[in-house]
Inverse folding.
């Protein structure tokens, strides 16, 4: 005969089981919330701290910048370019990926398996590290992981579309028209980080543009106009992509010989978007090679530009030029000794150098050629930190046209800049 528990013990056991079963849902929610909190912490540390740590390591050791979304627009490149990229950067990419995966594994393990006290200690350490990074950055750059994530999610669809917009296909080749006789040639120059606030044309007290100022009425200065974006990639898209095609595609359809020369690296930060935009150009030259550590100055663009303008085949040409300009850090964009002793700071010297390069480019233009210049965005020279989104100087840029008569085709707005080159192709 089976032994039986006293009635009082039986009742207490039943009540304990009932309580345990009734609280099962609450316990599950509590455990799930705790797990979600730890996973969120691990994700935040990985994104906001580890990504930048790996970035800095690879940049310092290999001269390669991993940040950005070049991987989104490889569709704008040829297969040979993709293979070349993989071959050149295989070692730093592999090392960065391995380092990152190890760091991620450690963070996840510590986050999910540590005790409550150890987890709180990890949170405090991460918060302290984030505060140090913010204090060192001193501007919106401290929040780079946040706005890069937002901008990437917001723009992934647009960036991906640039590949198809810039690709030259057999269908497009079949629609090429013959350019009219004696058609005008065009040189479209995209400046970098040149704000209107540092030009004497708009009231700046220092003479940062002596060469352009000396041209007088031969030159038209329009604006200042508001840049389409404070970032190069989105500005290039706004300035050079229209109705599902890029500017090189439209000009090539109109029978123009299309060329591009840029001071940027082909595979550097965000430059795959640029490569996709200019992929339809029949001749392309990228001067910089960050992986090899070579220093490039904008005057090195001039011989290539002159050769591209001269080596014709009877067709009119359009030449796209992308300068380094005053991109941060501006003092690195100026050759040693240039404009030193003239009372100019590093940014003013970079503007003075842009003035020199632009003037020399204008002097080299062949007959029936018009030059249009616009900067992708300005720079926050009126603020304590670079790329301060609240800065008016970041958004205010000049438009420069040579010869001045060509400015009649161009009203002082970015929208009219886009419609102007579009109209030339129709």
């Amino acid at each position: 005969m089976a032994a039986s528990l006293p009635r009082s013990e039986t009742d207490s056991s039943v009540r304990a089981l009932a309580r345990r079963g009734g609280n099962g849902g609450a316990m599950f929610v509590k455990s799930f919330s705790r797990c979600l909190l730890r996973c969120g912490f691990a994700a935040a540390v990985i994104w906001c701290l580890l990504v930048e740590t790996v970035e800095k390591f690879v940049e310092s050791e290999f001269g390669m910048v991993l940040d950005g979304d070049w991987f989104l627009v490889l569709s704008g490149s040829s297969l040979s370019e993709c293979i070349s990229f993989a071959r050149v950067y295989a070692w730093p990419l592999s090392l960065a990926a391995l380092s990152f995966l190890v760091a991620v594994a450690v963070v996840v393990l510590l986050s999910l398996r540590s005790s409550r006290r150890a987890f709180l200690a990890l949170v405090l350490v991460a918060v302290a590290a984030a505060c140090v990074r913010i204090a060192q950055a001193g501007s919106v750059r401290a929040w780079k992981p946040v706005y890069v994530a937002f901008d990437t999610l917001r723009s992934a669809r647009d960036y991906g579309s640039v590949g198809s917009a810039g690709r030259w296909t057999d269908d497009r080749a079949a629609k090429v028209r013959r350019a009219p006789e004696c058609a005008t040639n065009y040189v479209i120059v995209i400046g970098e980080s040149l704000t209107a606030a540092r030009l004497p044309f708009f009231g700046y007290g220092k003479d940062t543009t002596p060469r352009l100022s000396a041209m007088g009425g031969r030159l038209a200065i329009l604006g200042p106009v508001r840049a389409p974006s404070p970032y190069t990639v989105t500005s290039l898209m706004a300035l050079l992509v229209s109705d599902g095609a890029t500017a090189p595609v439209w000009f090539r359809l109109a029978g123009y010989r299309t060329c591009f020369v840029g001071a940027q690296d082909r595979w550097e930060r965000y430059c795959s978007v640029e490569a996709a935009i200019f992929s339809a150009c029949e001749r392309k030259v990228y001067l910089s090679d960050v992986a090899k550590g070579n220093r490039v100055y904008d005057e090195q663009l001039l011989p290539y530009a002159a050769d591209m303008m001269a080596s014709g085949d009877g067709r009119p040409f359009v030449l796209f030029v992308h300068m380094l300009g005053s991109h941060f850090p501006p003092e690195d964009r100026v050759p040693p000794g240039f404009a030193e002793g003239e009372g100019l700071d590093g940014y003013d010297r970079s503007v003075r150098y842009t003035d020199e390069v632009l003037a020399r480019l204008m002097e080299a233009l062949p007959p029936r050629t018009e030059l249009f210049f616009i900067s992708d965005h300005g720079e926050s020279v009126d603020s304590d930190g670079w790329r301060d989104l609240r800065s008016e100087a970041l958004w205010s840029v000049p438009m420069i046209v040579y010869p001045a008569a060509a400015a009649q085709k161009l009203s002082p707005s970015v929208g009219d800049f886009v419609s102007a080159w579009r109209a030339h192709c129709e």
Notes: The longest helix spans residues 24-62. The CA atoms of residues 4 and 10 lie 9 Å apart.
